[in-house]
Write a structure and sequence with these properties.
Shape: globular
Strand order of the largest sheet: 1-2-3-4-5-6-7-8
Structural class: alpha/beta
Oligomer: single chain
CATH class: Alpha Beta
Largest sheet: 8 strands, parallel, barrel
């Protein structure tokens, strides 16, 4: 896999979408927007032939129940969703929608709990935040079978290199200069 294939554009501001669409990244994590703007955003991303994962808790107007996930899957046909909630992972599995479970490594207890949840609900990928902790990236990667995304607070090329060298499969960032 080429290095550029391991970078994920995290769109936290809709103004950055055009930059991501023109960039070499193949994958976009949409962490902004609303149900009102989603149809046009999805059309633009599809025209650019990029993959898109929708963060269901961050896009305004998306419900957090099984019906909402089914609606997203059938209407917008994203490549997958991102969530912090294990019940949403379960809903997505019911409609064959790939999932990224986002976990926050705020302390050892949170990491241990996240590993247990991951092993129970079995999301397709994991996004570990913040993505600047080499030891934690190594430890989590050693305990899961899913691909690991390091994300959050990544601002420099050296941090991308560190995350990848520590075992991350992908690195997600909002810094447009790194796409």
């Amino acid at each position: 896999m080429r290095r550029s294939d391991r970078i994920i554009a995290s769109i936290t501001n809709e103004d950055h979408l055009d930059i991501a669409l023109r960039s070499r990244v193949k994958r976009i994590n949409l962490v902004a927007g609303s149900m009102n703007t989603l149809p046009s955003i999805m059309e633009r991303i599809r025209r650019a032939e990029k993959q898109v994962y929708l963060h269901v808790e961050m896009i305004q107007g998306i419900g957090r129940d099984a019906a909402a996930i089914q609606y997203l899957a059938e209407t917008f046909k994203p490549d997958g969703i991102i969530t912090t909630k294990s019940n949403i992972v379960a809903y997505a599995k019911q409609v064959n929608l790939p999932t990224i479970q986002r976990v926050f490594a705020v302390d050892s207890t949170a990491v241990d709990k996240a590993i247990k949840v991951i092993k129970t609900c079995k999301p397709d990928e994991i996004e570990l935040m913040p993505g600047l902790m080499p030891r934690v990236i190594q430890e989590v990667k050693g305990q899961i079978s899913q691909p690991l995304i390091a994300g959050g607070l990544v601002r420099y090329q050296e941090e991308i290199d560190m995350a990848l060298q520590s075992g991350a499969d992908y690195v997600s960032m909002g810094n447009t200069k790194l796409w």
